Each structure stands twice: as C-alpha cells, then as structure tokens.
Amino acid sequence: MAHGETFKYNYAIICRIPQTFQYKALRTKTGKPIDIDRARKEYDDLRDILKNCDVNVIELQEDENYPDCCFIEDCAVCIGGTALIARPGHTTRQGEVGEIRKVLKNDLKLNVQEIKDAKATLDGGDVLFTGKEIFVGIGKRTNDLGAQAVAEFFPEYNVNLIKIGKCETLLHLKDVVNMAGRNIVAVGCGNDAETKDANYIMKEMQSLAEYTYRVLHLDNRAGVDMLYINGRLIHRTREEMGEKNYGVIDEKIPYTRHRVNLSELSKADGSISSMLLPIYKKKNQMNMLSDITEDDIAPFCHK
Amino acid sequence: MAEEGNNKIEEDVKSDAKDGKDTKENEKNNKSPTKNMTEDKKSPPKKAQNRSSKNVTCTVVLLDGESIEVAIPKGAVGQVLFEKVCDHLDLLERDYFGLTYTDDRDSAHIKFWLNVEKKISKQKKRGAWVFEFAVKFYPPDPTQLQEHLTRFLVCLQIRRDILSGRLPCSFITHAMLGSYSVQADRGDYDPLEHGHGYDYIKEMPFAPNQTPEMLEKIAELHRQHKGQTPEEADVHFLENAKKLAMYGVDLHKAKDSEGVDIMLGVCASGLLVYRDKLRINRFVWPKILKISYKRNNFYIKIRPSEFERYESTIGFKLENHRYAKRLWKTCVEHHAFFRLREPEQPKNNAVFPRLGSKFRYSGRTLYQTKHTAALLDRNEPAFERVPRRATYQDRSRSMDDVGPRKNRDGYGGYADGEDYDNKYPGDRSPRNNKDGRTFSDSDNYDNKYPDGRNKRDTFHGVPTPFAKAGMTDSLNDYNPEDGKTRYNDRSFDKDKSLREGEDGRLYKDGEDAYAKSRPGYSPDGKALDSAEMRLQEKQRRFDDSADIRDRAPGEGDVTLTREGHIPDEATLGVQAGNISLPPKGKRTKEEEKKFKEAEKERKKKEKEEEKRRKKEEKDKKKGGKGKESEKIALAELNVSEDIRDQREGDSATERARQGVDPGSVGLERDIVRRDRNDPNASQPNKKPKSDKGIKSSIMAGLCAGRSPKKESRHNSVSSHKSNSEEDEEYRPSSDIVESDKDTTETISKSVVINSPIPITVTDVNQIETEIETSVDGPSDEDVLDSDVIMPSVVRELQADVGYGVGAGVGAGAGAGAGGLSAGGDESFVDNKMSFIPVTPADTAKKSGGSMKTGLDLNDSSTMPFFQPNATSTVGRKVPPPVPPKGRGGGDADDRNSRVSTDIPPTVATESYHYNPDLDEAPVSTKNVPIVKTETRTVTYEKEGYPNNNYDFDDVLISSQAHSSRTQTIETTTYKTEKGGISETRVERKVVIQSEEDDFDHDSALAEAIRAVTELDPNMSVERIECMREVEEVNDDRRR
Known about the structure:
The structure holds 2 protein chains of 2 kinds. Chain A is of the alpha/beta class. Chain A has helices at about 20-25, 35-50, 95-105, 145-155, 190-210, 220-225, 240-250, 295, and strands spanning about 10-15, 55-60, 75-80, 80-85, 110-115, 125-130, 135-140, 160-165, 175-180, 185-190, 215-220, 225-230, 230-235, 255-260, 275-280. By secondary structure, chain B is an alpha+beta fold. Chain B is elongated. Classes of the chains: A alpha/beta, B alpha+beta. Strand 11 of chain A pairs antiparallel with strand 15 (about 790) of chain B, so a sheet runs across the interface.
C-alpha cells in the first residue's frame, strides 16, 4: 500500500569524506578546525547504523576535488522512482552531481531528470518531502528556478515555496525542519535568531501546508537533525542535543532510534540527512508514493 | 475535419442529426421540431433555424468522446438539458457534473459552465448548441462514489485531464495510472490477445508526451493487474489520481497586484495561488471572508489572522471582465458545494421568489449528494465501457481548455507538446483555442464509429426510470415554507456542527469536537426542541430520499422547484412532456404518492407551527409586555434614485427578469411567506423557555433597525449606494447583501453611476428577557493540539474563536469585531458576504456549549437569508442595498408613512439625516432640483425614538440578512444586561430597492410594514428612510 511506502528506502548512497574536507569544506560558521579523523569516524558510525536500517548502502569513493562531496544529499532529490539531479547552489560543488547521476541512472535505473535551466540552483537539503507534499526553501543555495524544477518534475505533489533567504542562521531548509516520523515535523529553535527563523519557517509552512502534521519542538539545531527511515529514527546523541531535547524525543518517539554523533561534521554544516541520499526503488510502482489518507481529504468530504 | 473550424462544426451537427439517432428519445424529439418547422424542413435539427419551432437540438459531447443529440425546448433552462444527458447516461450521482459551452463571442473559446437555472438561450447566445459534459466538482474522494458508473465517468474525466496536461504527472505516475486504465478497458493481460509487446496499447493515449518507454512500462504494469475487474481498476486509478496535487484544481490565469503572472486554482478546500507551478499562497474557505469581482478584477477578502487586526483584501487581475466573473462563479460554486451543507438558497423558491440573486449554487452540495447517494438502491446499471479509442480525444475538463486538439492520429498530437508547454495547460492557450474544433472532433468520431454509438444508444434507449416532472409538481405543493425554513435552520445547525467536525478532524479528533459542539449549538438545554428538530430533519431527509428513490435519484427537488417558479412554467411543462421519456403512468402515480406525502408533512408541520406560535405568544406576554409599550413607530424612508442605464449584459438580463416578476405582488408574497416561515424556523430553536423573550421577537423576515445605530446604518446605506455606483457592471440588487461590509471601507467617494432606490423600514422590537446570557468561552483549546501544525484554517479558527468569544458576540465571527455601532452593519455584511462561512466563531460557540438560545436561533435563521444573498451578492463588491431607480419612492413614503418623504437637495453622494429627535425638521419639498449624480437620503424617525435608551453596551447577539432582488432584510439582535435582567432587542431592517421605473415602492413598503407588524405586533416601525440616487438633472424619471 502506498501509505507504507513513504519514508521507506531500500538504498542509501553515501560518500566518503575526502582529505580536503579538513581544510576546504565550506563552512558558514568558522570555529575550531575540523578533525578529519573524528569526522571519518562519525561517518563510519553513520554508515554502520544505516546498514542496520534495512537499506543497501552504496558507498561512493571520495573525490578530493570536491571537499564537500560527502554531503551527498544536496546532489539530488529522489522521491518515488524519480530522481531529480540537483544543481548545487555553491559553484565549487556543482561537479559533485556527475558521479551521483551515474549511479542513479546506470546502477539504480531510476527515472532521472535534469534541470534544464542553467540559471537554476537547487540543493537537495532545501527540499523537504513530508510524505504528502514538498516544501522547498529558497535561500542561499536554492533559487526560484530550482524550486520550479522540483515542481516540474514532481508534479504529483504540492510544491510549496518557503523563502529562507533572510534567515541568517540556516543554510538549508532542513537545518531547521525535518521529518521525525510520519506526519511529524521536527522543528528546532535555539538562540534568539534561530528561534526567529524557525518561527518564521513554521508560520510559512502552516499557511501553505495542505495537510496536517504534528510538530515536535526542539530547542536546538542538533536536536532537529534527524532522519526517519524505514520506521526508525536516526538522531544525534544526548550530549549533542542536550538533556531536554533528548527527553522530548524519548517521550514522543516510540519507534526504534539510532544515535549518532556528528559534532565534527556539523562544523561544516553537516547533518545526518545531508550525509546520505536515501532511495526507494521499486520495480513496479503500483501506487503513488504518498501519505495522503482519507483523513487528509476528509475535511472536505462530509461523511 | 476539425481544422475547418466552426463552419464545419455546424455541418457536422447537421449531418449528425440527419444520420439520426437510434434512440427513441431522439427520434421523438427530432420529430417535433420537424413538424413544427414549417418553413424549414430541410435541416430540422439545426438550432439556428428554429425560430418557429419549439425544440432545439443540442449536441452534447460526452466524456467518452461520443456525442449525443438532445432535443429540448428552445426556452428551456440548462437543467432540462442536463437532466436529459444524465438520463441518457443513466447517471444518478449527477451533482458532480455539469455542462460546458464555449462562448463564441470570446475569441479564446474559453469554456463556461452552463448555468442550469438559466435559459440556455440566454447563455449560449451564438453558435451551435454544442455542450460538453464534464466533471464540475471533483469529488475529494472519488473512490467513495456510490456507483461504478459514476466512478467510471470520473475516471474518464481524469484521463482527459491528464492528457490535456491539466493534471500533470511524472513518468512513473503516468505509467501507473495508465496501467489501470488499460486494465479497466482491456481487462486482464492476455498474451494471445495482446501479444508480447506493447503494441496493443499503442493507440491508447496516456500522457501528453508519451514515449515508447512509457508504453512499455504501462504494458509491464498491466500484467501485474491480472484479476482486477474494470471496476477495481477504476478504483485503483482513482485512489491514486485523487492524491495528485492538481486533482480537482480549476486553474485560472491571472496577474497579481504587481502584474506578475500567476495562476489561481479553485479547489474543494479553497483558493490556491501558483506562480510558475509553485504554490505561493493558499486561502482555505474559512479564511476567505468575501469573494468579489469588479470588471476584470477579482478580490478576496481575507480574515485577519491571529495577530492581525483587520481583514485584508487581495486583488487579482484577470484578462477581462468575463473571466473574472467566471472565476468568481467557480469560487461561489465550489465553496457552496464543498463547504456548505446545503446550498445557500432554499430550494423552494416559491417561498421566496428569487428576485435578486444573480448567481449562486443551486444544486446539491457534496454533503447532500453523498447522503442522497447513500440511499440509492438500484442495481448498478450495466454500462458500456466505450471502446477505448473513443476516449482518446483529449478534451480536458479545464474550463480554460478549448477542447479537443488534434488527435486524429492517435495520441501523436499530444506528443507535439503544443498544449503542453503551458505550465498548467489547464489555462486556455490561445493557440488551442484558435482551431476551436472542439466539437467537430467528436462529431467526427461519431461518424467514424457509428457502431459504438449505436450500441450505446440502444442501451440508453430504454426509458430511464425516473420521471422528474411529476415530482416537481408535488414538490411545489409541499409546504415549502415550513420545510424550507426548517430545513435551513437545520442546515445551518448541521452545517455548523459539520464544520466543527471538520475542524475537529483537523485536530484529529473530529468526533469529539462534533459532539461537543452539538450541545452548545442548540439553544440552552432545549434538548427537546432540538431533538424534535432533528427528528423532523430526519424525516425530511427520509422523505427526500424517498423521493429520490422513487424517481430520478440524481434529480433534486431543485428541478421541481425551479419549474414551479419559473415564469415560463407552462412552456416548460409542455416541453418537459416532450422530453421526458419515462413512462407516464408511473410518473403520475409517483407524483400522487409524493403529493400525498407532502400534504401530510405539511399538515403536520402546520400543526406544530401553530403550537409553537401559541407558546410563543404566551411567552411574549410574559416576558415582553413591559417593553412593548415602548415601541416606537418611526419610519424612515430613503429613496435614492439613479437614472443610469446599465449596459452590462448581465444586468440587462437581470432587469428583464425583474420585469417578469410582478413587482409588488412578488414582494408581497415574499414577505408573507417569509413571515410564516420564519417563525417556524426560529421557533424550534427559540422554544427554550428561558428565551421566551426572544421568541416573541421573532419576526417575519423583516429587519428591525436599532435606533442607536441609525446613524451608522444610514451611512452604510449611502455607502452602499456609492458602492453600487462603483460597480458599473453588476448592479443586480443581489449585490445588496454584500455591500454592507464594503460600506465601511468603501466610502462613497465615487461618482454615482447607478441609481438605486432603497426603502428602508426599520422596526425595533424590544423584549425583555429573563434569560441569562451564558456564553461560555468555548474551550477550543482542549481540542487543539498545540503541537500540531494545522493548515491555516485551523489556526484561523482558533484565532477567531478567541475573538468572538471575548467580544461576547454570538453572531458571525466578523460581527463580533464590529462592536456596537459598526456591529450591525458588519454583521450584516458578514452574513451576506459570508459567503464564506464564518466557521470559526460558530465553532467556538458551539463548543462553548452554552450559547444563548436566541443567538443560535438567529444564527440559524440567518442561514436561509444568508444563503440566497451570499451567493448572489458576493460577486459584486459594490452593490449595496440601494439599488437604483425608484421612481415611486417618494410617493410611497408619503402614503405609507405619515412622514412625507421628500428629497431635499443634496450634494453629491452625501446623505442628510433628518432626525426629529435632534430637532431637525424634515424638509419636505416635493420637487427638488436634482443635481447630477447625487444621493439623497431622507430619514424620518418616530418620536421618542429610543436613541438614548440604547446603551452602547449592548451586545450584538446576532445579525442576519437576507435579500432578494428588491428587498433586503436584515435582522439584528442585541442584548443588554441590566441588573441581572437582560433585554433583547430585535431590529429588522427592510430595504426595498429597485431600479425599475415602474416599481411600486409604495405598495412594497406598505407590504413590508404590514408583513412585519402583522407577524409580530410587538414590532413597530421606527423609521423610514428614503434614498434616491439621481444622476442627471433633467431626468424625467426622478421621483
């Protein structure tokens, strides 16, 4: 049934961390230098977790030319059997998609689509698929044309536009909101500026959202960094997100959880979801991939 | 063929007709025209030439691409044709469907929905009578449709939408949906029959740009569906299609205020705004307070959000005025269909001749149609799944789509992407339109595949089981008022709760919310009454359903009613005779049965009514005596005259209609009936003992004006005028409804273009109530889950709730905000406009649990009014209750009210308010020079007009308005609490207006007054206002 297929993945593409990551990775906030070994350790941990999540992990060789190549999420948007090759908003990253394209097309044989407009930019991290509709954040890395491409290639879904250009505290839409489960949106605040941005985004989402979601409020960005995959939730460790957030998650999330520490990678704006490209490939798709249920339509169906 | 354009189409039509249909029905129909057509025997069916004949042959293109010919009387309304088509299809769940036509005046060949209420000839003014049958309201969950046939038709529509690009899909979805189509059309994959490749589906169109890969995929998926029956395949198809983002979204091209190209999408849940396929805004119905259009502008007024204080109006520009109107109509209809329990206007027009509303949705709502459908019990008709090829024509339902494009060569046509390059092809693309061969295609098709058609026809040739005509009659006999009123009340009630339920559901606890709200909704603990009501409702419903079962299920009372009302009834009836195939004997029997039933019901109701009346009377005496003496008899007459002619086609039509309606007579009837009704309606609710006082105040649908408000009201009136003036195009009195709100905002700066002459009668009824007002703050919060992201609707609701409650206002949410002085107007407006249901406030109330009886009653009674107006009015931004023209205004005043109303010279668009209390002597001059473009208002008030008596701490409890073409009735209820005693005052304001020269304002006024006072002796005339708008000095018509 279609319902069960959202957030269900049978492949996950990940990419090893290149040596150049240590010094050349793009960082929105400067801070302590990155310890490449620790970063790699975190990567390994994540990979191991994924292997326990009922997905086939496809690990790509790192490419030293692209220090950010480990953030593979930005390279494509995959929903259902359709993969839209992104056009990363940062020029140094645009070459990363080549390898991904090959894998998606030749190995996974997805329905691969390309953005035609050369002016479009699109980072996968700006695209949030809720299972029912899509939100695209337009800001630092994704522009209007990129969002249009999403709408064009995923016409089955409502594609809602959220302008995050003014939000200084985030790079990608998914830095602030993530799906913590079916119909559960996690949103993370933090300091004042972050809270402001988060509130703004939530407001926009509420006004545009066609469907209803539950919101999981967390009070820092580490807390909201999570990935819901195959009925499990991968999130950061207690130390990273703090006791309070951890308690909230403990309380609200009943299903299996995996914890991973990404503190080193997050120095370069890495997040769990940014590290992988989860894919659901089905030979014969009999139903549209969507969480939309009768209840979602019900408000206007007088039963 | 198609390429040859319109001429060709005619040819086709002709030849088609000649070929003849095998159906008996058609034969029959064709015959009569021929007979009658003495002069023009050669081409009988052609529509153009039947000046002399009674019947016209219409060509209707069905969803499967076939076209049928239907003969209907020339003067028939759309419904006649629509019903015949549905009969042909044997379709019962018809409310989702409609007929479209292209307007040949329009170069773009945009499609318009045929208004079933209006004569076809008034709509399809030029060109051959060719229509397309299409899904008008996409059921949100088509899988829940009752019958296979209906689902099949919806599938066909969706296939068309997909082909036309109106419903965009990705490759994968195309393949998946396509495979279900194949399964439905071709059955199980069979290698012997279908071969091993995808050749067997090569001719089938699936997508605008289909590729061999796609076909391959489709064939592959098809093999997986083995075992699915066509019906199951349809369900699977719909199961997926309904989730598509653009499913059921009717797109209209527009520009936003900054001139940016956008698309406005109307759908079940509201209005969506797209820019380049991205959804940039979304306005759900509960968030929209008003929808209007003016010239080529389309406006929506948005309910203020939690943190905002004022509503905002958002404007969009459409290509031209007609498109704006079309969009507006679409919105009105979608809103009514998906959001209301019942259409806004009572079905039984007899009660209420529909004088003014220009347009509103008149069919069944989704809610009703579902209920009706649930009661269907017939064996599902076997239907022919037309050879798949027939469906290949790509006709999209999109109103904007011109129609079939090329498709002669299989689906190749689509591949060229011509239609496709529109981002949302749904929007008309001039290119497509140009060839305008919408119909020729189908004709073509018919010719090509005569077999298919014949088969079908034969099948349908069997007389349909339903006979509608008979039903109609009985319906008319049915005690309309009673039924209607109650119905409405009920509906409102239900509506509310329903909405609540909805909202609740949003929070995921719909049931709960519903339950909670229910009690609150019904008047204080008048459980009995409400129960009774419910019972009646049920009964009613039952009856309805019975009717339906007996006859044509799909067909509503509507039809009947309409027939009864329409001036050309006779004609209609005759025609109907021709038309309807159903066995007569049966029909009559049914009719009789029906009639009897109706009679019974009516009697019962009457009795009840009587009982109630008595009780009421008693109550009144008890509670309201003291106050009665205080009643004031003041009359104000406002006559404004405008001499402008309207050139707008629509208004012209309207006028014509008006002409038909016996002016005063109609009014009279109207009023009387209304009087009767209202009491009934409100009574059930009012009964609650505690609310005795209130009960007595129930009036016949007249509005009582509240004295303190005079000023404001006055203002509003004038502003109305100005409003109306602004809107040159749509003057229809129906506008009245809406105007109030605008009043506040739209000040009368504009030049008077039109001249409305409204007469306002204000009654004030004061009643003492011992009832305690118990308004509990609805605790919506309980229901709310703060952790839920609710679509804006929900949030709005919350906000509103808080609002309304805090204010202690029972009436519409908006009204609450209004406060005292503004309150009346606002609420008035609200109701009218409230085309957009003010769900939130209501919800709040309901859930609150302890609402005042009076309030609720009022609310519910509002509904009926609200309905008619709402629809019609909404469209116009400007039209105020002060329609133009009224020559008789002055005289009327003199006669009816002892106060002589004369029009004092005034300056343009200024109103003078004469208030005896203020020592201002009314100036009475009979003939005053008329200044160009001016509005005058003369107000007379009864002495002792209790201006001062009304404290401004009155609380507006409810306000409702209802308007017909020439009359607007506004009822406002206020409540004051003094030392534990709460006093309820009911004001009724009747605005009589007409643009007609010969409109008899005198008698209308007299009638109105009589109606009010007769009904409720406690009511007294407080003031009469006469307003006239004049445009030219020399105009003879003045006065």
